[in-house]
Amino acid sequence: MVRTDAEWKTAEKVVRDALRGTDFECEDPPVGLERLGGGFINFAFRNTLAKPIEGAPTTVVVKLTEDKLKIEKTTGEEFTLHKTRSYYEHQVLANHLVPSFCSKEANDDDSPFILIRTAKVLGYFPSRHIQVLEDLPDTLTLKAHLLSKSFHPAFAKACGRAIGAWAAKFHAWGRHSDQGQLREVISNYEEASVFKYRSSCGRLNATVDKFPDVLECKRPLFRKISERMLALIQSKNDEIVHGDFWPGNLVFTHNREDENTTDVDSDNTGEDIHSGNKHLIFVLDWELCHLSSIVVDLGTMLAELWILYFFEDCPSAPLIITSFLEAYGSVDKQDALDTMIYFGVHLIIWPCRTEWSSSPKLMECIQFGCNCLENAYDGNAEWFKDGLFQGLFPSEGWKRLEDICIQI
């Protein structure tokens, strides 16, 4: 659903009124607020400050969150994402230090310098559900870079390693006892987990109805998969997930040689790096961050990367997948199988609802998703060991879950 010009103008007025008289006041029209694309649930703007602070950036990102009614077209089922989701996003970003990852932690002198972190929260107006965030201008998303097919293979591998290492560090951080208070806060955010389930497994039956000749025979399997995923999601109360972890929510600089370089300590989330072979990646859009299983994040990222490879022939996507899994490290066997279940569900329910719905390759994608579901649900780890996702399935035996511990 594309926002209308009238909706954007109404949102602009709300933002200008909310920020008037604050440190983030906008310049007068027609300048001041630049509309930012990339999503249809929120309004996001790049705000040129009316009174910038000397030595500080002259722009910030302003995010306005509103209630959003979602409708499943095939069934007419309605679901509302409430604007209170901005509160939970703020709790994660502002009050708790989501870990960063710097590639120099890996002691790989041949890799480019990559720092991954969240954008800093500069202001929050809870009554208006408006967040003011650090800006990272002149950037592209990982998805856009992949579609441009301009990645050097070595850089693609380095990005995959960095993103995988960050994800492992973030998931370990979320399980740590220090995050007990945060987990308690977001345990009240049941709307996010319900939405994730309804927009994934909850769409399987509707997808059968779209392609009955091919998928009607899969309905019993899909019912078992849905029950399995629902039980998994409901049983996890000690794992924090991003909730919308895909290439469109990773934005990064690339060879910005016009900026000064600041040497960055890997534990310092407040410094930027831009110079030559140095890169900064922001992990954006935390409004679906909730308690669930790590397979939600892993399955989503792997599926979205594979989709870009399969439908758009992005040559760097497989390199990122393999290096991501290598850097993420061990998971226990059931998490590996459940990740591939979530991956398969994504392939079945998502491309047929997007720009790839008319692709001649669509049914091949859905069939591959079904094959993944069947083998993962049956516990057939061997089926995956010779393919692109073999990094999830070690050849030297499984680690016990209690032995998997990442220091943060």
Per-chain topology:
Blueprint (H helix, E strand, L loop, with lengths): L4 H15 L13 E4 L5 E7 L10 E7 L2 E4 L6 E4 L3 H10 L6 E2 L10 E5 L3 E5 L4 E5 L5 E2 H7 L4 H23 L4 H7 L3 H9 L5 H7 L1 H4 L3 H17 L4 E2 L8 E3 L25 E6 L6 E2 L2 H19 L3 H13 L4 H17 L12 H16 L31
Tags for this entry?
single chain; 408 residues; alpha+beta; 5-stranded antiparallel beta sheet; 5-stranded mixed beta sheet; 13 helices; 40% helix; globular; disordered C terminus
- Rounded Rg: 21 Å
Q: Summarize model confidence as the mean pLDDT.
A: 87
List SSEs in N-to-C order.
HEEEEEHEEEEEHHHHHHHEEEEHHHH
Please give the oligomerization state of what you see: single chain
The count of β-strands is 14
Task: Give the fraction of residues assigned to helices.
Answer: 40-55%
Structural class: alpha+beta
**Gap between N and C termini:** 40 Å
How would you summarize what this structure contains?
The chain is of the alpha+beta class. It is built from 13 helices and 14 strands. The two termini are 40 Å apart.
Description:
- This protein has a five-stranded antiparallel beta sheet, with helices on both faces.
- Strand 4 (68-71) and strand 5 (78-81) form a beta hairpin.
- Helix 12 (333-349) runs antiparallel to helix 13 (362-377).
- Mean pLDDT is 87; it is low at 256-275 and 400-408.
- It is globular.
- With 408 residues, it is an alpha+beta fold.
- 40% of the residues lie in helices and 14% in strands.
- It has helices at residues 5-19, 85-94, 142-148, 153-175, 180-186, 190-198, 204-210, 212-215, 219-235, 294-312, 316-328, 333-349, 362-377; strands at 33-36, 42-48, 59-65, 68-71, 78-81, 101-102, 113-117, 121-125, 130-134, 140-141, 240-241, 250-252, 278-283, 290-291.
